Fold these 2 entries.
Entry 1:
Amino acid sequence: MTAGRKNIVKQDTLGRRIWKARTSYALMAPYFILFFFFTVLPVLMSVGLSFTYFNMLEPPVFVGWENYVKLLLEDDIFVIALKNTLLFAVITGPISYFLCLLFAWIINEFKPKMRAFLTLIFYAPSITGNAYVVWNLILTGDRYGYLNGLLLKLDIINEPILWMKTENLIMPVLIVVQLWLSLGTGFLAFLAGLQTVDRSMYEAAAIDGVKNRWQELWFVTLPAMKPQLMFGAVMQITMSFAVADISINLAGNPSVNYAGATIVTHLLDYGSTRLDMGYASAIATILFLLMVGTNKLVHRLLRRVGN
Amino acid sequence: MAGNALLFLLMIICGIFMVLPLVMVINNALKPIDEIFQFPPRIFVRNPTLSNFSDLFVLMNDTWVPFSRYILNTVIITLGGMIGHVIIASLAAYPLAKHEFPGKNILFAMVVLSMMFSWTVTQIPQYVIISWLGINNTYAALVLPAWAFGMGLYLMKQFMEQLPTSLIESARIAGASKWRIFWSIIMPNVKPAWLTLAIFQFQQMWGNTGSLFLRNEELKPLQYSLLQISAGGVARAGVAAAVTFIIAAVPIIFFLVCQSSIMETMTTSGMKE
């Protein structure tokens, strides 16, 4: 029967196929009209701006590939920013992804009230909105900083460490803070995903000889949650490639010798401080291409889940 | 068993770190002024007081426009931006997840890819478009762009894709229209998804001070006014702590309501087929 339907679809002209799907288009119209105006157009305009010099006071001047040439060949800070961003992507991305999944899986085992409470605890850094205040207290560079105080008391160090002013320490600390902060969107999506896994699948799997919880997770739960796993991966990519706020709030922008620079802090430096919107747009375009490439790669990996 | 114990130990240690900001917000709001400026700073309050809140309420009566107006603005912007987005993103997600039509893959790819373009640089083109549409300085300048966020559509589409096709097929055979199928079969079955989306969107809209698009004082949201009141330097430090508490508390309450509702529905009914 499916083969017969395929033949009919092939014979239909494009116009007829569109007409047949008119209800689908009608359902999508409100969203996509707004999406075009408020997302597609601005993105296209930004890409256009990346080929100009634009200081937001005078009209943009076309400069061709100049911004890209400067960015990729002459900008030393961009090299540092790129390196740091890739570090975030390679380290915090996967670790945070697995922690989100692990915590969601464990929390899902609890009774509803306890579950809501535990979810709040783990989501707290994303919802309370004062995350940096906490870390600034912990990481204060004098001996009154919580971390320095603790290490001094335990005789591990003899004098306070300037956590956010020491070049070699900035990135490790930022990575830890980013991990702490990253249990957000993906985590809640996984929790919701666990709720929608069809219960009867577990019973079927038990009959098929799935022995322990880990096997159940790998052979039943994860394959059933593939759509959420994809979603979580994309959110993780957009988040870890766009790290900027924690670096700016904890290490400053620019940080000591640009040790905490990321692509987005670099972008913000040009976009909001130096008012060179053309160059900032070129950085955004390169970052976009990086994320698209990573996304392709991760998709390929996720297809293997449950095999 | 040892593995389980290790997992729980990991959870507890992480949990303590995770809950720190929440603990600090609550304690700071209850600190009398001398404890706020205590050096070195302490996390826990010693002599809790509600004076920060009473100071805040006094200042609220003293704003440029009646304080209730800010609350009304926030209700319109937050709920409008949230409910509208959940509805139109879900409507668009349904065909993308379950129907076949020309252009489907391109439309979906555009939404996913849009999330990867840095929001910082699209802000200025977006401002130009909003002015050009003539909705600058109206609620629509905040609400309409929020309806078109990419994440919501993506989230809804992923959950709807998970629904068994037989579920929709049997309703169609019974003669239900696409509209009907959407409201009485799709949406109830992806309740955890749209409640989760509501949490994200509420948080997003609640955090918007509207400073870029709203010039009229009568249109500005609560968040703006609260930050305005608390921005008084040393003298307002106590009030600022109370404001931080309120700004965090509202989305947390909303979060808890949604989360417990997600779990209630699913534990009682499971997925129906």
Entry 2:
Amino acid sequence: MKKLVLLFTAGAITLLSCSKDSDNGTGNSDFAALEDSVTINFVNKTAIPGYEDLLAKATTFNNVVTALNSSTTEANLTAAKTAWKDMRKTWEQCEGYLFGPVEDDNYDPNMDTWPVDYVQMDSLLNSSNALEIADIEGLATLSLRGYHPIEYILWGTDGKRAAADLTAREKKYITSLTIDLKNTCTNLRNSWISAGGNYSAKVLAAGKGAQPFPTKQSLFTAMAAALADICEEVGESKMKDPYDAKDPNIVESPFSGNSTTDFKNNIVGAYNVYMGTFLGSNGKSLHALVAAKNLSLDNTIQQQFQAAISSFDAITMPYEKAIIDNAQRIVVAKTMSNLVTLKGTIEGDLENFILTNIKD
Amino acid sequence: MRIRKIYLAAALLACPALLMMCTKPAPFSDEDYDPRLSGGAATVFDATSKAFGNVIPGLSNYDQHIHDLGDNSVDQTFVTAPATINSGLGPIFNNVSCRSCHHNDGKGSPTTGTVTSSMLMRLSIPGTDAHGGPLAVPGFGLQLQDLAVFGKTAEASVKITYTEQVYTYPDGTVTTLRKPTYSFVNPYTTLPVNLMVSPRMAPPFFGLGLLVMIPESTLLSYADENDANGDGISGRPNYVYDASKDKMMLGRFGMKANTATILTQAAAAYQQDMGITSRIFPKESSFEQPQTDNLGDDPELPDSLLNAVEFYLLSLAVPARRNTTDGDIMAGEKLFAQVGCSSCHIPTMQTGVDVRYPYLSNQRIHAYTDLLLHDMGDGLADGRPDFKASGNEWKTPALWGVGLFEKTNGTPFYLHDGRARTLEEAILWHDGEAAKAKVKFSQLSAGERGQMIAFLKSL
């Protein structure tokens, strides 16, 4: 999936040029201690709180949709839409660290499969299937589960669905789908905590020889690679494919008009991982590691993140319309270009920094 | 004077010739090659979970674009027809996108019928088809589709059970292997009594372009069908019918070297695994079965996308080896050869030349395979012939990247059906032609066995 990889020579040259930059004299033992706090903070202040928050948002979403099911008012429909967007926000930001169980155990497609399978959804809704959670779990395809079928039902194809338009079967269906989301988020949260799958122990054991992170370098490389991957997924796939094809049909989250917000939250999530500021937390992060040895690189990364994030705000039309509007295409192209630049810096300079400075 | 002029002219002519002779490069010795470059120039330095998904460095902008199109296509989730995008899933299928099975461009898990499942069941009955290939099962075809879109009936579901068996090394060390058995639950119609079944895990995507480029003559030079050299290892090529070329060709892909080209491999996976028809296989996997959709929308996959996927698979780079100067790993590499593993897992080959693909041409690669068929004994046998491959034979799988499965897969699984949970278990399942090598491995000290595993993990 990844396109740019450090090559021998290119890497070596970049290393040489970087290592001349300002080294503020952090001692080796201080730096090793810093590596440890970055690891601990990543687990306790970013990864686990992120999934805890996602579970909280999923629980709220389920409660709100359950209320909508029993009392189908415009206010309850609006509340359901808001809860959908709130949950999306956390989820998209959690995609800033898309490695570990979320990837290994396919929690991502369990929640976020695109596109929606309209033909199957119609057959399902027109059938006598009870649409209980067990029935949902027994469906053969994930395109009938997760965010996007719910989005389709809440907003409708034109984004203007009224509460009165929701059928009883649809309401039952999305109620079960939100239980399904909650279950997936529970499993995802549990996969990290010590009372569950305890993936955090594997991260915290980085550098002790055991898989998946026998060295600290391998953990930090994985973190950086995840940052680069999300930049690539947004800038070179989710935005670019519909942009190149000028095809609104292949834009994700079109019903809610939330696509650009989704894209931006992906990059905000990655920036939060870098800065250690996820969900308002603060603590030593990759940013501190880089700043300790190479302030100018840290500045560059921060500036490029900020430039990319703020450039989304110039996309003022819904994304599926922006890609076919001449003026908006220019700002979309600018954002994609910012993301390519940022990805290049992460894959080149940041990953080289890690290879050069994190030797344990 | 006249003569001197000639001497001068001759001397001038000779000089460049001499210079050229002086600078003519001598072949490199082994030590001059970097052992990390498993794919030669088509190698990338990435040991993360995404290590199998990198493009070969240095593609032209146009080639990169096609690669990206293919990359995007293998990610796409198909949905039921008719649909505006990604139309044509099923009606019966094994999974919904390429990457659903080929997790991170790699393997996946040895289960069936779930979104994380990466295993399928090939089926046939005794006999051969018009091309000498396996004979389709009436009502089921050559592969079991264990899922169906809502309202249709899957062919059957698969139940997998494992029996633990203890293996004791000569030094008394005990380890446990697990042997799978498969049964079919709720078949939609009666399965024949003489049914033959072969479980297959999704293989990794990368390095295929280099394997295509190994000259047939090189591979045949390792064949020893009648074991003329008496080393107990025969090794023979599979020759299979290729639908995209409409001719018999040397098989290079598939667990039994039962597919000759990347294009046919990809098109068959689209059709059989996902129910997506293409110009190579324009009929639904459910053709002439009650599940078929009769929509008349075939082929469902545009040629341009199929071609892009073919190129994507051709142009994925091989991940570099790690820690090649580590003492234990170097010792393990020697043991790998001494024990006899490298008789079939051929460490080094040279690719041929194709002017279309300079980055794949003339590369010194370390795939650790001969792409030939070997009798691997009754324990691994599937009892299902596939073209020239017997029910006991399997193709030597490439080992490059095998040390990264723990990264790319979360939990790694090895061998054709994922029964081996560790590389050690995978070695201990070797039998038949590989029995001698396995026995020699078992006779190594625990430390030496560890060195050999460490070597494999560096691949």
